[in-house]
Amino acid sequence: MRLAPFQVLAAQGRSLAAVPHDRQLAWVDRLVEHDPTSLLQTTRRLAVDTGDESSVQAGVDWWLEMTGRGGEGMVVKLVDALVRDGRGRLVQPGVKVRGREYLRIVYGPEYTRPEQLERLRQRFLGHKRSLALREYALGLEALERLARGEPLWRVHEAVFAVLALESEPVDPRL
Q: N or C end of the chain: smaller count of CB under 10 Å?
């Protein structure tokens, strides 16, 4: 078994959730470099500048190559780890971008037919997105409580709240 971490959540006395992803990955790379057990490995990634057409194309090519070899997909994240919108609300920290074959397993062998794609486009994803953002906010709260050294039961309050949200009915294929 090998692990490919992509973020360091906290250190003694400090939540690291707001540290930019490029810095997080640099820390993880250093951990991998100094891992005597070889348990850790680097997380494959590619930085894409969305304002540069060739960079975007390189990202598309990277994703196609990875999913073409059977990879499940990737998670697209902003460099800034903790982002708020103009009204101060948390922004979704990442978006899963699945490959065609993985989606075929989830949605069925004929999901790429035009009528199936149209049906999939009509789904209401607001509930799923809202649920994910609430879980994310509670996770951040748990990290802050842990970093402040609050009693474990206070950390667990936020963790159990995440688990309670996960019991809400939602289409698992979204």
A: N
